[in-house]
Amino acid sequence: MKKINILAAAGLMLLSSCDLDINQDPNYPSGSEITPELQFPSVISAIADASGDMMFNYGGFFAQYFDQMPEANQYNDIAELNIDESKDLFNRCYRNLYAGALMDIEEIKTKTTNTSNLFACQVMRTQAFQLLVDNTSETPYTEALKAASNSSPSYDDGKTVYEGVLAELDAAEAALTGEAMSMTDPLLNKNLAQWKGYANALRLRMYLRLYDGGQSEYASKITALVSADEFFEGDVKWDVFSDLEGQYNPWYQSVFRLTQNHCAAYPIVSYMQSMDDPRLSYIILPRTSDNTYVGQFPGSKQNPDIVGTSYKNQDVSNIDYSITHDMPIYLFTQSELQFLLAEAQLRFNNDDTAAKAAYEAGVTKDFALRGIDGADEFLAASGAWTGSTEEKLHLIYMQKWTALFMHDHMEAWSEIRRTDVPALSDATAAQIKGDISVYTPGDLIRPAVNKKGDDNIAMSIPYSSDSRKYNVNTPTPARQITDKVFWDVK
Q1: Is the pTM of the predicted complex or chain greater than 0.90?
Q2: Per-residue pLDDT tens over the stretch 374-395
Q3: Residue 328 has pLDDT above 70, yes or no
Q4: Contact assessment for residue 122 and residue 106, using Cβ atoms and an 8 Å cutoff
Q5: Is 383 exposed, middle or buried (0-12, 13-18, 19+ CB in 10 A)?
Q6: Residues paired with 403 in a beta bridge
């Protein structure tokens, strides 16, 4: 019951902060009656909803975890990269982050001087802007959130936004005075050490992207973070959902509940099979025709040369959506953190022992999170820490991709773009179907039906059509999904 009440309160605050008219119903707080204690859960809820709803959905396609179910059609456009501003793919995320989370933070800042409250708000503000940049690269920042005084804010380049919110985060942490948080906090239970650890994990994630985007000065920041070793424990997750009508996980509620639209994609199935990975059975179902695991070639549903003319749901592995009803939204898993630490230890500290320990912790934490046995056996066999430094980095990246499946698809897609792992196969879907030896298990595959051209995959998201409609400073020309974000320079 506690989880339901918290979610209801967060939902109410989200609605009120998005300027929806509730006619000042006396049963609901409004204006000055909305205290930071009530308002902060709506901040978390809005950011979690953006990450765990639409970003989770299209990120799952772009990371090639999902493809469109043979007998359904809702996400053909995403699977086939038929995406531009007119598809409204980013609108709900854009509204949740700006009109929801970020505006609520601005209001909270006018109502409290508690430095711990303000620090927690800044951590969430940092993650919100990280998500915005990782989708569209440019986004309103320096002129944003000024309401009527500037209703058409200019867009800032992604590097400016990243470095701006990281500087804000440093300042907010430096201003801490030791007072306890007073805001309701269903995320980290007012534990300031956990909030600091969460902030450091966000720094590590963003520092790595800045470094790989050409900012070499971030190497020293990465090594300092790793040396300090002050990160969160457990998982940072928005765990407020229930298996009840109106209380479902938002992805299940909005994109999965009425029609089964998702089947497993060929890359994730082939990689887990090649690794003899027992996690393959987690949420992926064997196809009903012969009880084997078979992933669908990306974007192939409407290509009869790949799937034939009588392609049915039974011909491919479905996703078991029944376990997603009350699935938490993971804002940062311990597994992802450990893989980032393993990478940092290997690349920047040349510390193979520490890298191995973090890598194995990342795998073990993911097995535990899924409730799957066999982590030790996996690490002693196909998941063993062997080979050259480059081979070990590749293993880290591939296992991070595996671990983010059904946990954080936006981060999976971002990490693919940053690291180029999984790699993009040189072979087409048709070539792989004809001769499996031309394919390395796990490699990404160009969509078999590709509206952006045979050599393209998704590299970013077009600007929100709401922004185009209402903000005269939305950049022109329109962003294409083949345009890269600022840190993706490979």
Answers
A1: yes
A2: 999 999 999 999 999 999 999 9
A3: yes
A4: no
A5: buried
A6: none
- SS3 state at 468: helix
Q: Six-digit token pair at 328?
A: 């938490």
With tokens 């500037």, the residue in question is 150
Give the Cα separation of 121 and 141 in Å (integer): 16
- Cα-based angle 72, 134, 419 (whole degrees, multiple of 5): 90
CA proximity to 365, closest of 345, 329, 336: 336
3-state helix, strand, coil in the chain (%, to 5): 55, 5, 40
**What dihedral angle (degrees, nearest 10) is formed by the CA atoms of 398, 403, 405, 408?**
-110
Q: What is the dihedral of CA 449, 453, 457, 459, to 10 degrees?
A: -140
DSSP assigned state of 52: H
pLDDT band at 256 (very low <50, low <70, confident <90, very high): low
Tell me how crowded residue 479 is: count the other CB atoms within 10 A of its CB: 22
Token readout for 360 is: 């194995």
Q: Is 327 helix (H, G, I), strand (E, B) or coil?
A: coil
Beta bridge mates, 155: 140
Q: Kindly report the number of other CB atoms within 10 A of residue 16's CB atom.
A: 21
DSSP secondary structure letters along 394-446: HHHHHHHHHHHTTT-HHHHHHHHHHH--SPBPSS-HHHHHH-GGG--TT-B--
Confirm if 116 and 176 have CB atoms less than 8 A apart.
Answer: yes
The CA-atom distances, in angstroms, between 134 and each of 66, 153, 478 are 20, 19, 16
| Number of C-beta neighbours around residue 427 at 10 A | 18
Distance from the Cα of residue 376 to its chain's centroid: 27
Rg (CA), the chain: 22
